[in-house]
Amino acid sequence: IELWKSLQKKFNADFEIELNGGLMVAETEDEVRFLEKKVVAEARVGVNTELLDRESISKIVPEISGSVIAGSWCSQEGKINPLVSTPILAREARKQGAIIEELTEVVGLNRISGGYEILTNRGKMSGKRLLIAAGGWTAALFDMLGIKVPVNGAPLQMIVTTPAPKLVNCLMYHAGRHLTLKQSNSGSIIIGGAWPASLSREGHSITLPESIEGNLWVAGKTIPRIGDIDILRSWGAMNIDIDGAPLLGQIPGFEGLMIAATANGYTLGPIMGKEAAKIAVGGKIRKDLDIFSIKRFNL
User: Fold this and answer.
1) How much is the pTM?
2) What is the mean pLDDT of the chain?
3) In whole angstroms, what is the distance from residue 7 CA to residue 11 CA?
4) Closest-CA residue to 174 (of 227, 218, 217)
């Protein structure tokens, strides 16, 4: 969070960062017990979370459903607008010498003398070091080099409503159902929670009507007035599935070949980029980050 803030200040930009807290709600006693364990686990690593009763939750989110009986509250959580921040980061990267080639597909990777060769639909290039940071397509690129990595693509989808009155006053989750809720500065509510999308024959993410229906049902059950709001659009995108932790570092037995992959969302983007760049330039990972290397899978 502090790194995101520093980038915002450095580039004199507004990423729409709002640290207005995060709330995970529960509707059953089993879900409450899960939240109790969550609060204890987070306290061990210095994350300040507290268990709230229904009355306290209604003060934070007045529109909360009557079925919610408890929740865990973390005042340190918040949100950012990727549609605003990503283009700014790309612009500043270009200013510092980065080359971003859009609509350029990698069709082949080869290990050559002194490094690696990258074949694309627009030509080829080579380099001494190669860092693969391709999200849900990471495994497909490593396959080109004959290397199996435990990274899977997971197409998921999101929903955005038309602008609405303020209903979601913080970042929200559900302890027992697939749900994330946040409301943008424009008033649109962004609804998600890892509902699956599908893939077209061309490999493009496409939405599933049953996921839209299920996601909206959970959202409306948590904040009933969401059911009165029109849906503006939905989209699918490729998420990434590892083992709950990032992958960062060298590939054993392949000098100059590195991986950077994380399933931990947009929040970790800058710090992953920062550490990946250090590895790419220096060829070594910090000792305290070695727990995130691919060696933990004993491949």
Assistant:
1) 0.87
2) 94
3) 6
4) 218
